[in-house]
Design goal:
The protein is mostly helical. It has one domain. It has twelve helices and no strands. Helix 6 packs antiparallel against helix 12. It is globular, with a radius of gyration of 19 Å.
Length: 304
């Protein structure tokens, strides 16, 4: 069950990445990020209200648990980590081809794997180790493909931003496992809907402050903002993808190292969209990188 949810989340994330790329085209990053957090918050506010004021959601997967500061302090930290990753990722994606960004993000689970081995004591079998090794090889090949488009992985600031976003995303994934794990297993034991609902709201508050302090005073000097309907699509697809992800992690048998790796299969959808809608270049070489990622996903599936 948890593995199927991870695959579902991966497909939805691929659409999310593609819509994000469309929304960011010649557009201001900070207002888009604020609107994304705003719309995501609006999706979950009804669940919070109905859970606290009525019994309509009792016994359903959409019930949002309540808790005091002892719970919310962990969620605030989650919001800070994710938002930092998003800020770096949005700026990087705006200036790089989607067919470069997707495979870089697909290597994020390797970092999660190292953390899962060290922190949670997870162990991989032979099939799973082969899948992880293929993901590492794909990243090395991707740097070679990027050079053909004038992208130097060692000296490009946008590459550093995408890599930084991936590192923070990996930290977020490990933190999610810690938040969802039962107290008797060393976790915090938080409700998954509580985490997803409130971290979106906290992110929205933080982004509003950034919008007012950083973007609005200099909006005439920076890239102008224009509305794009893809902005709403970004929030919808991300919210559903994260719902499936948190649901998977809340199941006791779920392994964060595998869930994270499968979720990065979203690169398949984003790669196809980059080729079909954004007409990106050097697709043949990048297709080999993508094939290795897919093969790695297959080995992980067999091993699981």
């Amino acid at each position: 069950m948890w593995l199927l949810l991870a695959f579902m989340s991966a497909a939805l994330l691929g659409v999310y990445d593609s819509l994000k790329k469309k929304a960011l085209k010649n557009n201001a990053v900070i207002p888009i990020l604020f609107l994304n957090t705003l719309f995501s918050s609006l999706i979950f506010v009804p669940f919070i209200v109905l859970s606290s004021k009525t019994h309509l959601l009792d016994g359903t997967p959409f019930l949002v648990a309540t808790g005091g500061w002892e719970c919310h302090k962990y969620i605030v930290l989650k919001a800070i980590i994710v938002l930092s990753s998003w800020v770096l990722g949005y700026f990087g994606m705006k200036h790089l081809p989607l067919t470069i960004v997707g495979p870089i993000n697909a290597t994020r689970p390797v970092m999660v794997l190292i953390g899962a081995l060290l922190v949670f004591g997870e162990r991989l079998n032979m099939w799973q180790w082969i899948g992880v090794s293929l993901a590492i090889i794909s990243f090395l090949l991707l740097s070679r493909s990027g050079k053909k488009e004038g992208i130097d992985f060692k000296h490009d600031q946008w590459i550093y931003m995408i890599v930084g976003a991936a590192v923070l995303g990996a930290i977020s994934g490990l933190y999610d496992k810690y938040l969802m794990a039962p107290i008797e297993k060393g976790g915090v034991g938080l409700d998954r809907m509580m985490v997803q609902s409130w971290y979106n709201i906290y992110q929205c508050i933080m982004m509003f402050v950034m919008l007012m302090l950083l973007w609005c005073p200099r909006r005439k000097e920076n890239t102008p903002f224009h509305w794009d309907w893809a902005i709403i699509g970004v929030s919808i697809f991300l919210s559903i993808a994260d719902f499936a992800y948190f649901f998977a992690l809340s199941l006791p048998e779920a392994m964060i190292s595998i869930v994270s790796m499968v979720r990065r299969g979203s690169v398949v959808v984003s790669f196809l969209c980059g080729a079909a809608f954004f007409h990106e270049k050097n697709l043949k070489a990048k297709a080999l990188d993508l094939a290795l990622v897919l093969l790695g996903m297959l080995f992980l599936y067999i091993g699981s």
